Amino acid sequence: MFSGKMPGASNAQQLLATNVAFYMFYWSWILISTFVLLNVILAIIVDAYASVKRGSKDSRTMPSEMLMVAKERARSMANTCCGASWFISDHKLEKILVKQNELVQKKMRMKQATQSMMAASKKKAQIRMPGGILMEAKDMVSLLEGCGTRGQSLLSRAGNLLMNKALENEKNEQESVQVGGVDVVKLEKSIPKAIEDLMERYGEIVDESKDDAELLKLLKAENLKRQMAMFTSQDMIKQQMVALCEVMSAVAEHTLPEEVRLKMESDRLVRQAAEGDDVDLGQVLDLSNVVSGKLAVEVVSALNIPRLDAFSKSDPYCVVIVERSA
Fold first, then answer.
1. Which of 3, 92, 125, 131 has the largest count of CB atoms under 10 Å?
2. Which residues lie in coiled coils (predicted)?
3. Exposure on the CB side of residue 19, measured as CA atoms within 13 A
4. Which residues, 6 or more positions from 126, have their beta carbon under 8 angstroms from its beta carbon?
């Protein structure tokens, strides 16, 4: 009986020991992870506190702020009672700064409105002429006024209005725009219907890039004309120089002595050969028996060339004999 119960008790003790070890490991891991998380949180808190401390190192505390406000109020009251003007309170300074800021903002709005009006006026139809010249409707009015005969202009003859008196008595149309509490007046001169019809027929919205392209095209055309004129002049000068050289050669041939003429002709052929041009050697020998210069000879084939002697270190060579052909 005793021997039969011992194995059961031993198994129970083994199971109990296994649970204890598991619980110890489990709670140890929880405690360690908890302490690690607490350390991380504390490190974050300490770092944040240090950052706040550095940022508020030179800032005022609540008592110092209240003391400063009280001093400022006291100095303002003393300044008011004594009638002195040496002290400017923070309240007055704030009012002045706010007022100046409003004025600056108002000026900026007025400037933007003016720029928008100018941009809108630039988008009107214009007549573009060669050379980048632009004509608006008012320019066309000024151009056509007084361009007629017998004291009448083209506008009056068109029958659209009574010319001089009507234009002089015509009042400008005023259009006001409210910008920042200020009325900005936009003046526009009334344009006759005849001019409006001309602008509709011949006017267009001018693109500045198109004007630049046309100006560049004109410059290229002028440059091409200049180059062609220079080329023509150079060709003419070259022809005149060739004709002059021929005349001088003919004069020298008939006036210079025979020896001098032959020497000059020989020197000319030698210079021509030195410049790399092909020269007939027979012509040179006809002019002079002795010629000083370098003769370039291309050997096509050679016979009876001696072999290379390794002991005496002699090189192969050939002899070229230049004979004057009959």
1. 125
2. none
3. 6
4. 134, 135, 136, 203, 204, 205, 206
Task: Say how far apart CA 266 and CA 64 lie, in whole Å.
Answer: 112
Angle between helix axes 258-274 and 208-255 (nearest 10 degrees) is 140
Contact 322, 281 (CB under 8 A): yes
pTM over 0.85: no
User: What is the maximum alpha-carbon separation in the chain?
Assistant: 163
pLDDT at position 153: 45
Separation in Å, CA 37 to CA 23, 44, 290: 21, 11, 111
Cβ–Cβ < 8 Å for 125, 203? yes
Q: Tell me the three state secondary structure of residue 124.
A: coil
Task: Give DSSP secondary structure letters for 173-205.
Answer: EEEEEEETTEEEEEEEPPPPHHHHHHHHHH-B-
Q: Are 264 and 242 in contact (CB under 8 A)?
A: no
In the prediction, which pLDDT does 196 show?
A: 76
115-123 long-range Cβ contacts below 8 angstroms, 24+ apart:
117/177, 117/184, 117/186, 123/205
Tell me the C-alpha distance between 20 and 244, whole Å.
127
List of the chain residues with pLDDT < 50: 1-9, 148-168, 170-175, 179, 187
Which amino acid belongs to residue 149?
T
**H/E run at residue 128:** strand 127-129
How many alpha carbons fall within 13 Å on the CB side of residue 251? 6
